Amino acid sequence: MLKFVLNRLLMALPTIVLVSVAVFTLIRFIPGDPAALMLGDMAEPAQIAAMRSELGLDKSLPEQFLVWTANVVQGDFGRSIVNDEPVLPLVASRFLVSAEVVVVAVLLASLIAVPAGVIAAWRQNSLTDLALVGTATILLSIPTFWLGLLLLLFFGLKLSWLPVLGYVSIGSNVTGGLLYLVLPIMTLVIHEMGVLIRMARASTLEVLRLDYITHARAKGLSESAVLWRHAFKNAFGPTWTVIGLILGNLLGGIAVIETVFTIPGLGRLMVDSIFARDYPVIQGCLLFVSLSYVLVNLVVDLLYPLFDPRVVAG
């Protein structure tokens, strides 16, 4: 087990290095001069040159990368051009807002969709199976922004059950904060259920065809015992991987949902920073999202042996 963990950690290091290089390089392709942007249109060339020297932009790209990497390792992501705030606390606070929505949505979607997919596989080619697969296909086909707008229209405007736009921190007001998060969480749950139902169904069907399932049935075990005690654990491994991928994708790609529901999360911060050409914040957001994705997938890999011990044995 220790060897497996060390191998996964060592495999994550090159990924982190490549991600850092990619983030640093992509920011350098954005047109415009950060120094001129910070000083404004009325700045003199000498002032711009001095600012470029202060920011280290007059150095070669390899030197800039080494300086930036050293600062990041120390927790210094730079300062925002727009409001002169440190980037790391700003990005971290917005990330927590996004995580509130994403983690709860993925958890609820998994609790609903995984059992539904298992039941669909158990009742293969029945009306139940067709209904669940058809529902999953429809859910996959609906764009999240359109689904979010529909939920806003129905539950917010027509029924007036939930607030339409805005955000209240759960820390300051638990009830109010939860009400504002219901619709964005519901949007993500409905959409991601389609992926998870299909994945859980496919992996369960594959397991149900194995010899040990036939042997368990031959021993006289009930279908529920065969399904949940023997088939489910082995079938959940591939689904667990998909759950990790969904979680990582949503943590970095929730900008559309946050824009629709005006949630001040990391995706919204990235969009606003792009429009404001706030390069340090854009760079910080990209790096934070990328590292979060790598970390989530690393955790998924480390927990995978819980569902399939053969991974460690191999």
From TrEMBL:
Transmembrane segments: 9-30, 95-118, 130-157, 177-197, 239-261, 281-300
Superkingdom: Bacteria
Keywords: Cell membrane, Membrane, Transmembrane, Transmembrane helix, Transport
Protein name: Peptide/nickel transport system permease protein
Record family assignment: Belongs to the binding-protein-dependent transport system permease family.
Main localization, broad class: membrane
Annotated localization: Cell membrane
Topology relative to the membrane: Multi-pass membrane protein
Organism whose genome encodes this protein: Rhizobium laguerreae
Domain ABC transmembrane type-1: 95-304
InterPro entries named in the record: BPD_transp_1_N, MetI-like, MetI-like_sf
